[in-house]
Each structure stands twice: as C-alpha cells, then as structure tokens.
Amino acid sequence: MTTHLQVGEVFNDFALPNHQGELMQLSEFTQPNLLDRKLGFLDGYPLIVVFYRGFFCPRDRQQFSQLVQLQPELAVNYCQLVTISTDPPLVQAAFRAGLGAQWTFLADEKRELINQINILDVTEGEYADRAQPYTFVLRPNLTVHKIYNGWFFVGRPTLEELRIDLRTIMQTNSNYSYEDYNTPEVKQIRIPQQEWANGTPLLGANGLPVRRGIVRSFDFKTGNGVIAPLDTEEDIFFNFTAIPGEGYRTVNPGTKVEFEVVTGKFSLSARNVQIQN
What is the rounded CA–CA span in Å between residue 163 and residue 73? Predict the structure, then answer.
C-alpha cells in the first residue's frame, strides 16, 4: 500500500496525543505567532511531518539523528517538525529524550490516521501494524508541498532537500522580505532601536495618548507581552522593542508601567513602555 495523498491536496487536520499525553491539533504547528498576527502577517509557517516505524528501527534512528542536527535551524527559521508513530506517549518520550530531540512526537496508537492516509505496514517482522516511513512537507494551510516515500532509506529526504522545500514555501509568505518589515505600520509595533538612540523620550511628546498599567504577562522566549491598563479591561500588546533601550529588553509580570498607546490595523499596542518607580 502507498499513500493516496498527492501534492496539492490538503492534509487532514487531525488531533493526536503528544509525547506528554496532551492532545494536539496539527494546525497548531503552522499558525502565525502572536507578533505576526499583530503585524498583519497571517500566513503561518511550513511543517514537516515524519511517519516512522518506531524506536526499534535503525533506519528511523539514523533519520532522526539527522533531524536532530536540523532542529537548531528550525528554532530560528520558525518552521516546525512533528514525528508520528504507533508507539504510546511514554515510549515516545523515552525515545525522544535518548535522541536529544526537542520537537513534538505524536502517538497514533489506534492507527486511525495511518489507515486514513493508507500507509499501514502489514509486512513488518518485528512489531505488527506500524506506519510506513513517509515524510510530508506541508504548507501553512496544510496543503501537501512534497512527499517522500522512505521505504528504502535513500528515499528519505536529506537535510538539504528539506531546506530547499522550506525555503520554497517561505518565499511565498507576506513577511519574507526586508521591505515587508520596513513599513510605518510594522515599525509602530516592532520598533527600530534607532527610535531610542538618543535616550528615553518623554511620554506623550509625540502626541500619542499615555496610559498606566501592570504587565500581565511577558514571554521571555518570544519577547512579547501584555499590559493590563488601569483604566480599562482591554489588554494591550507590546513587543520588547517597545521598551526604550538597546539589546534584548525584558520586564517581569506584575511590573507597573507607563506607556504610549498606538492604534494599529488590528488592535491597540503599547510603545515607549517605561517602568514606574
């Protein structure tokens, strides 16, 4: 049996438990991040989906050792990777830890997805009813961009082939070029450091309204945060670039701040965020 899926068709937006037993929807991996949505970049990002036999297969281990080399690149190019087998989450968690993998493993123990896309292996001699080794490269809307049949190891994608696939998809995104970020709309939210080169400006000196609030949350990984204003229930988004200064700036949740309010295309955002003593 070979998969009936073809390039250009839409992959099923299934839900499976991950290596921690948490149910996850495939489309969760391709969504634009919070900053993208605030900037109006709604395309999302590519996803590599790898089906594998299981922890016992030496060809899978070899393929995954290569994917471990790719994961630092995935972390900085915003593309995603998931791997799927019939192993239960606990087994997948152990396999993942042994590899040093950081991507998500998904468990199709009931073989529902594997049967649906027609890749059940009925010839496996060690453990019955495993997935055939396929790799699918998906566009953000889950359209199939490329299919690799890995029955023989030579059919599995090299890292360079995956890089080319990801680049081809990313080049169609609305935020792929420098010019996409060099616009007034984007720069009022993702603020160039040149804005703060001469020091912290007086609040409201540019005519923008000034408000006070408390930092409700700040993601130290993404640099995005949310302020709860004192005079309204509507939370206000900010990127770390809205904090005057140089380098990567952070602020702890619970901090009292004063800031200017910018009305963007999609919602309000804060700039010139200053900590109150």
Answer: 9
